[in-house]
Amino acid sequence: MTTTILLLLCHLTRPSASAILPPPPSSNAAANPSAAPPPPGPLTLPRGLPRLIPVWTVPAPVNPFTAKAAFIRYWNRKVRSNRPHPAFFFAKLSPLSGPDAATFSTLASAGKLASRIRDFCAAASLLCPSAPAASSSASSSSSAEGAAGVVASFAHYRKEYQNMSKMEVSKVAAAETMTAPCQQRGLPKWTPEPGKFFRERDLMMGNRMPMPNIADKLAHRAFLPRDIATNIPFEENAVAALFGAPPGSAMRKAVSSTVAECARAPSMGENKRCTTSAEDMVDFAVEMLGSNIAVRTTESCAGSGRDVRLGKITGIAGGGVTRSVSCHQSLFPYLVYYCHSVPRVRLYEVDILDVDSNRKINHGVAICHLETSDWSPNHGAFVALGGKPGEIEVCHWAFEGDMTWTLVD
């Protein structure tokens, strides 16, 4: 929200010289000072419609007592890069007011949050199947069941991008139906989607290439403030009971999958963490990379499922080999991200253009994995690109809604 300040300009008719110069004093006025004319009164504005001209626009101040304001202060203490706050990240912050955050935090710490779960879901913008009154959080049973299609999709995505070395083509699920404007047909389960994997040499300005479906397919939810999230047991039964996800439901399956993946022991050389709050994610990124960091994502799903042309390409960290932290959404009543460190990568920011008009339609982040020696020989990347583990690098786009943390150049 912004505040616009307007300046009122009034155009006056130009007075004549006789109107500007005072009349010469009369002899009576000179002889009798009390007879002198009174001083001029205040200026009277002419009639007519004034012209309003916007002068400048300034951001509206953030209420210092909201959950969002508390996180902004936390970010400013932890992140030292002095870059503008990333709008896409801050848009996911809790919308809770100060009084609501305090109330629900007290209830959560006392184990009594269930007594106000409908109000909580509505105020905190959560996905709660049992709370149809919370319309603003899309928390209806139909929304939860509508998530069924993305549960398998997310499980496939997690295996493919988060556990690269374990990915087998035989495990790849068929593409799920997605919502406009990023719809496309499903593909045979053994076929990697065109453009899902590519080589670093393909990142060339003017190059035409297929764009896979990178749409954020998960329902909108917000982060919880840390002091609330830490008081909700991160266990399948506890989460399902609190948010109303009965056995066999789409949300119950999603909760079970997310909790199990988060409980999985890290692979050799892997650093991972499931972050249940924005503060948790910042802490993990700082722990892995230091405080001079930035977070990026692909702006939208524009271009998905069709050919695009590459515009300006900028190497992050000068295009050199670097480290990053990738964070992927999990399907859960509130925002949970699976974050893991990614060593030996090169990253690029890319303007994505319409093929015919060369008009910019998106801005993407491309991640190129340079170390593939421990990947499965049956990985979909090698099916799509040829080659074997350790022989080639593999690149892919960051999905809309996911995040990549890097050192600041």
Radius of gyration: 30 Å
Q: N- to C-terminal separation? A: 30 Å
Oligomer kind:
single chain
Order of helices and strands: EHHEHHHHHHEHHHEHEEEEEHEE
Total strand segments: 11
Shape: globular
The overall pLDDT, averaged over residues, is 79
Q: How much of the sequence is in beta strands?
A: 15-25%
Number of helices: 13
- Class per helix and strand makeup: alpha+beta
Task: Tell me roughly what share of residues is in helical segments.
Answer: 25-40%
Question: Sheet bearing the most strands, described?
Answer: 9 strands, antiparallel
Low-confidence stretches: 1-36, 42-46, 48-59, 131-159, 161-180
Task: Give a short synopsis of this structure.
The chain has 409 residues and is α+β, with helices and mostly antiparallel strands.
Write up what this structure looks like.
By secondary structure, the protein is of the alpha+beta class. The protein has a domain at 141-407. The protein is built from 13 helices and eleven strands. It has helices at 17-20, 27-31, 67-78, 87-90, 98-109, 117-124, 141-146, 148-162, 226-229, 236-243, 250-263, 278-289, 380-385, and strands spanning 2-9, 51-59, 208-211, 272-275, 293-296, 306-315, 322-330, 336-353, 360-369, 394-397, 403-407. Strand 7 (322-330) and strand 8 (336-353) form a beta hairpin. Residues 1-36, 42-46, 48-59, 131-159 and 161-180 have low confidence and may be disordered. Residues 197-408 form the BURP domain. InterPro entries: BURP_dom (IPR004873), PG-associated_BURP (IPR051897). Keywords: Glycoprotein, Signal.
